[in-house]
Specification:
Layout lengths: L2 H5 L1 H4 L5 E2 L3 E5 L9 E5 L11 H21 L4 E6 L14 E6 L28
Antiparallel strand pairs: 1-2, 2-3, 3-5, 4-5
InterPro entries: AP-4-A_phosphorylase (IPR052908), Histidine_triad_CS (IPR019808), Histidine_triad_HIT (IPR001310), HIT-like (IPR011146), HIT-like_sf (IPR036265)
Protein name: HIT domain-containing protein
GO molecular function: catalytic activity
């Protein structure tokens, strides 16, 4: 086991809710919404773009299973699905993980723009003036 695997939160975590041969999912320790889940490959790999094709397929199968689980248990009104690739994009644990975040009407005043909200001033669809 490499030093990065020994210190990796997700390589040590064992509270798996869903699992297949190459990936697993758990509930987020710091959920954005009820039912917020994380899906990741079992192999320690930092970036989504460095996963194998097979790992990407396995991860996306579990994304669908996370949705099905939340649909059964919570009946959310929508979902955000996203991954942070690199510290500049907000990645804080260097083991790739996909967020599956159930969304509910009223959980924020105006959800329009969805994932564009990672840069708050860009969430609204306003054409930017060129310099």
């Amino acid at each position: 086991m490499s030093e990065s695997e020994k210190t990796c939160l997700f390589c040590r975590q064992h509270d798996k809710v869903l699992e297949n041969e190459l990936a697993w999912a758990s509930f987020d320790t710091y959920p954005v919404s009820p039912g917020h889940m994380l899906v990741m490959p079992k192999r320690h790999v930092a970036n989504y773009f460095d996963m194998t094709r097979e790992e990407k397929i396995a991860v996306m199968e579990l994304v669908d299973e996370c949705k099905a689980l939340n649909d059964r248990e919570r009946q959310p009104d929508g979902y955000n699905v996203g991954v942070n690739c690199g510290p500049a994009a907000g990645q804080s644990v260097m083991h790739v993980h996909i967020h599956v975040m159930p969304r509910y009407w009223g959980d924020m005043e105006n959800p329009r723009g969805g994932v564009r909200g990672v840069i708050p001033d860009k969430q609204k669809y306003v054409k930017q003036q060129s310099a």
